Protein 1
Amino acid sequence: MITKAKSRLLAAGVYPTNEVMTVALLILTALLIAPASQAQRSAQRSNGVKSSQAALWLKPIDIKTRNLFYGPGGKERQPNGKLTFLEEDMHGTNPKFLVKDEQGVRWKIKLGPEAQPEVVATRLLWAVGYFVDEDYYQPQVKVEKLPRLRRGQKYVSANGMVRGARLERDEKGDKKLGEWDWFNNPYVGTRELNGLRVMMALINNWDPKDVNNSIRPRQGVAHAYYVSDLGASFGRGGNTLTRTRNKPMDYARAKFIHRINGDKVDFALRTRPSFFMILYPPYYSRRTRLELVTKDIPRADALWIGNLLGQLSPEQIADAFRAGGYTPEQVARLSTKVCDRIAELKDL
């Protein structure tokens, strides 16, 4: 086993000694078997919330008529009028900054390759009852008093025109109350959580880290559990060098269901790093663990979410991609692929 592992590392240009290789494998094994301290901390943050105050999912009674172009905020809650720059947000890996519209509503503008897929993903999850942020996409938007950005300046043209902007409503007092872990939270084992796991595979979200899972007030629920960052979607899974986001062709070619084993389903979404990353055991362990989000899902629960999704018309699904600013050709390719995946779920 060590000889095979060494050959892979040598091919990658890494030359570990036998001792280093052995120690790395022992450390990785311990990390994968031992309880993850990060998961325990997340559980401490999320557990203890009274069920009457918390929810992961609300039963949608209008799936067939939901407007997936405007999404959960609707047409009336779009950004209104002139936008004025407030401050830059240096958190996360994508450029972001805050603005205020003429009604005094704050919006967080996100730029880069995650802006489009995130808007689409929020609409698909919201359509079947999951909590999401209120997002809108604008291919071009003018921002008053916009300074030179420390990140994302390449998306800014003359006179404060910004290209490819996702605007997320940022309500005053809407603070993040905590994070939650996929494997240790109040909803483990429920069909609603398993359905959300399937949704991550449906949109090919290869980055379901705990930090991307929020607990916030949403839709009248004091502690709504939801995935608050869905930008790493609609590409293909893979390791650090091969995975993509917002690549319609990659998404259209990606496999969906990996295998059906009795009453369990494994989806084909890959998040595991390249093998040479075993030399960084904590990172390798975390990324490998994320693959389990879309593995070993009860077949009945996958069918349940598939039947909910099956109530959406092709036109509604296409509207979600139109909301993300995709071209007509991309809308056709992406919405067709989503419909195909829904059909696979309904056939389980």
Note: Residues 21-72+117-132+176-346 form one domain.
Protein 2
Amino acid sequence: MASQAPGPACVSLPRWKISLAWRYSPGHRAWLGAEAERLLAFYENAADWSGGGFFWLGQAGQPVTERPKDLWVNARLVHCFALGSLLGRPGCALLVEHGLRGLHSLFRDPRHGGWYASAGPDGPADDRKQAYGHAFVLLAACTAAQAGHDTRGLISEASEVISARMLDQPRGLYVDQWDRGWTLCGDYRGQNANMHLAEAFLAAADATGDEGFTGRAVRIAEQIIGDFAAADGWRVPEHYDSGWRPVPDFNADRPRDLFLPYGTIPGHSLEWARLLIQLRERAGPGGSWMLDAARKLFDRAVSDAWDDQRTGFGYTLGTDGTVCVAERFHWVIAEAIGAAAYLHAATGEAAYDRWYQRFWDHAALYVLDRRLGSWRHELTPENAPGNAAWQGKPDLYHALQATLFGRIAPAPGLGSALAAENSL
């Protein structure tokens, strides 16, 4: 009798098919560590050892010395070098100390309090007090504390200024900017500064143990995402008037504005998806809605803006939900990586791990600049280097964090997660 071919029940799964998720693979984790080192080395050159603070960097990492120093760039670099110190990288602790001195000597307003938006050798270049920059001062202070620096005074001062000057009562959201003397508050309200304040409050809760900060972050998320984004089909409205009514046509004539572009920004939906997973870890029963919201934000952003043929995300959407600015910005793919990693960790669903790999494929092939260093901050819709909006490479924050999202289980903050690893 002829032998029968084995049926499906007789087929065993090859050993190579039994594997962990791609983001857990030892090779990938080693690659992430090497990429973090490459990035940190590039941004060492930003330090102005004679004048204080950190310069804006050009395409090849050269300091742009004629440009005033920006608060958001300086505070984010303090945060990043503190993460580098927690990773065990020599030199980063001194860069944190240098950056903290710069925040105090260059940007802090000794008369009226708060921090200037930008500063030059002769004093403030832009003396407005912006919630966006203040959020990163608080984040920097908290991550520095987790890396072993005594920033208790800076944490206290930053949180007090934010609460006393920027809280928009009774909503629990925050105004965007004041003049230098805190006498004139602008009418514009924006979700971007509020999103980063939620991130900073999470870091503050970790660094101080004060759960009041968690409550502030939850209140922001409940309104920006639970109310506004949910009502807009899980796109995040960016711009509002002084009564917190969305203004969808704001800056319609400035679609490539670096911070306040017309339309909605899928990258912010992805960033919020990641933040919601982090916030859910701390919020307890009050965060039960956040996983579902994170899923919907992720799905909407990918559906609206991911270019499946060429890869990459379009930057903004018009009021009809179609891509308005199709250029790719480096920070968007970094936040997509974070959202996919944290949603995979929260759900265990393989689809998110596949997206995580897909996003890193795009970044590795097009965004990482192997010749000049760091990440290209902008690409054309065809994924060629571009500079329609971004000039140079000032920003380490998003890229460095992307190298950590796949290595660290979701926690309220990256600083606290690294500090906990170091205490084992």
Note: Residues 1-18 have pLDDT under 50 and may be disordered.
Protein 3
Amino acid sequence: MPFNPNFAIEVIWPAANAAYAIMSDPQPALPANYTLVGPIEAVTREAAPLMLQAHPNQLRLAHEMLAESPIFGLVAWNAVEKTALVALRGTKTIWEWIDDVDAVPVPYQAVPGAGLVHMGFQIVYQHMRANIARLLTAGCAGAQRMLITGHSLGAATALLAGVDLGTNGPLEVRPELHTLAGPRVGTPDFALFLNGLVPVCYRVVNVMDVVPHVPLPPLYEHAGQEEMVQGGFKPLDVTYAHHLTTYLIGLQKLAPAQHVTGVGV
């Protein structure tokens, strides 16, 4: 399946945007024909065993996410196309990743044998893992397709969700991953496992965005296929190239007839 910028503009970007908006709006704007199944609420007790194993620095991302909101994203359903949609958010700052470039990877506990992953990302995902499965079971029965997306840290947890839901998930369908501004998540063995499991995995990357460059190789390696966009950057503002709205600009340059409005991060 070739990368489709129109699909990214019409479905993926609005879904990623809604994952942020749902923190303050219980009925965020969703892609056409999608209805909200429910918000993905974090449950700290689900992540407690992992957190007990972690170094304090590895807890920073989860603490920052929880400080912003206990809602980490949403699940939606397209009854016409029998498609489940999981959209995961990031945080308002990117500095935690830039400061954590030397993170030592650990085994991915949700899927033994899948390889090593960033512990901070794994802890964030563990907070929402059970509720994602619950929402998919409750609202997406009979799905013939499952999309998983996210921006920034949400892109990192989307990859973890893809491997988990593709192996242990309640829906009998392989997920498709379409992420925006994602960092590296795991070691080469994790990337190899994901690429063998997930048939579609696109990483949209804006030129000059620093987040897709951390954590550093060769310890960490990207999975999936990179799709570069030219959304713009500001020399004196490192975060500008990472903004979700900047990614929309880049996608629209690939498909200029498409227009989507919304408030991004």
Note: The two ends are 29 Å apart (CA to CA).
Protein 4
Amino acid sequence: MRRAAAFLVVLVLSGCGGDHGAAPAATTVGPSRSSLRIGVVGPLAVHTPGAVVEHGPLDRVASDALVLVSASALGPAAVAAAADGHPGTHFVLVGRSTAGHRRPNLAGLVIRADQGALLAGAVAGLVADDEGVASPRVVWVGPREPALAAAFTRGVHDTSSAVVVRSSTSNVPVACKEAAIEAVEQGAIVVGAHSGLCAAAAAAAAHDQDRVALAVTDFQLPGVAANRIALDAVRGIYYGNEDVIFGARSGAIGIRRLDPRVPASIAVRAHVAAQQLVGGGSPSG
């Protein structure tokens, strides 16, 4: 197997790549509080000792001490507007950068997509090799994202000798679906993509042909990162004017879901690969 670059990283400072571990320079530190009120907007599971967690729309929870907002529910402009209207509340947009919308009481929580792509590629390689065919093929579908495509390819080559084909398309779902259909017709065993409607369309095409589909977001664990931010708040630590980046070392990279078409034996090896990445090694499975 070829060894992929290890991703043991340190905490982000002012939006640079890293992995959450200690308070960055822009952090606000205050007294630790018991029964801290934390608002959660969108599909995030937050369970933090010492906090009272309430789920609801942004306008209902905006006066809590900390508000965690899933990027699947609202964008940075809407959360920045809430931060302006509630200067005593700290807001965190989970899953997206707040670049262009910096506020002292607003931070972005970003989970490293390159590491998610690396793990997705490793799982794709395991699935491809399990087919037992000569020169198995894996395809990466979607808009041009060279860094993510390269990380996915490294992951595939960590676990397999499969050929990786890159099929660049627009971000329009129908284009992603058509590209996936063409790739499967040309022999692709696994279809990989980044996220959103493009990844969903590519997966639908793969599933129509009984092929495995993997998205980078399948290997990112926003709930883990959100709980770390919530625990910091209970301890009196808040973030603002920055992005806080979480990677494998924090536990925010792992298997959130696997395509049910992945064989059980390969699923076990996929979890081993995830643990290897968390430990700083290459995900050989």
Note: The first strand starts at residue 28 and ends at 29.
